[in-house]
Amino acid sequence: MSYRRAYPLPLTWPILRRQVFDRDDWKCVQCGRRANLECDHKLAQHFGGTHEMENLQTLCRRCHKRKSRSERRQYEVSGQAEWDSLLGF
Ligand SMILES: [Zn+2]
Predict the structure, then answer these.
(1) CA 85 to ligand 1 centroid distance, Å
(2) How remote is the CA of residue 58 from the centroid of ligand 1, in Å?
(3) Burial class of 49 by CB neighbour count within 10 A (0 to 12, 13 to 18, 19+)
(4) Where do the structural domains in the chain lie, given as residue ranges?
(5) What is this structure's pTM?
(6) What pLDDT does residue 77 have?
(7) What is the whole-number distance in angstroms between the Cα of residue 83 and the centre of ligand 1?
C-alpha cells in the first residue's frame, strides 16, 4: 500500500525527530506521557509551518491526534472562508 503525503517530510526527518525528542526529554509536552511519542509541527505544514526545531514538539499519539483533528477543522473553516471571499460572499 502506498500513499503520497500532501506535505512530504525532509530526508533529515528521522534525525530531526530524534533531536526534538531529546530536547523534550522523550515525553509528551502536553500530558507528560512517555509512550507512543510522535513529532508534531506546532504550526501545521498546511498553515505554513516549517521543519525547524522551534516549530517541532513531542506529543504522544493521543495528544497528536486530538491536535490534528482540531487543525483539520480550522483548515476546513479557513479554506471555506477563502472560497467564500473568492465567490464574493
Ligand atoms: Zn500526550
Answers:
(1) 37
(2) 8
(3) middle
(4) 13-87
(5) 0.79
(6) 75
(7) 34
Q: Extract the runs of DSSP E, i.e. beta strands, from 9-78.
A: 37-41, 56-60
Q: Which of 36-40, 42-46, 82-86 shows the lowest mean pLDDT across its residues?
A: 82-86
CB atoms within 10 A of CB 63: 21
11-33 tens-digit pLDDT: 999 999 999 999 999 999 999 99
Q: Determine the Cα–Cα distance for residues 56 and 16; give it in Å rounded to an integer.
A: 9
66 CA distance to ligand 1 middle (Å): 9
What average pLDDT does the segment 72-78 reach? 79
Cα 82 to middle of ligand 1, angstroms: 32
Centre of ligand 1 to C-alpha 81, Å, is: 31
- Round to whole Å and give the CA distance between 89 and 44: 27
